[in-house]
């Protein structure tokens, strides 16, 4: 006998694809931002950054 789905499971099934797509967009944007910052650091090595890209990612994913 199949387990009866609760409301959370129903919503998860409905929105799982959308959630995964949104997660992929966010990851892609983060990777793009990191690439931009790395290129900027190479072009302008003396430019001070108060917060590094790694620190921003840690805060973002916490």
Topology:
Layout: H1 7-43, H2 53-61
Walkthrough of the structure:
There is one protein chain. 74% of the residues lie in helices and 0% in strands. It has helices at residues 7-43, 53-61. The protein is elongated and about 60 Å long. The mean pLDDT is 75.
Q: Helix and strand string, N-terminal first?
A: HH
Distance between the termini: 38 Å
How big is the Rg? 19 Å
Helix content: over 70%
Query: Overall pLDDT, averaged?
Result: 75
In a few lines, what is going on in this structure?
This protein is 74% helix and 0% strand.
Give descriptors for this structure:
single chain, 0% strand, elongated, coiled coil, mainly alpha, 62 residues, 2 helices
């Amino acid at each position: 006998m199949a387990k009866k789905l609760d409301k959370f499971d129903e919503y998860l099934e409905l929105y799982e694809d959308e959630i995964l797509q949104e997660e992929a967009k966010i990851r892609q944007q983060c990777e793009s931002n990191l690439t931009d910052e790395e290129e900027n650091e190479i072009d302008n090595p003396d430019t001070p950054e108060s917060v590094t890209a790694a620190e921003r990612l840690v805060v973002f994913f916490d």
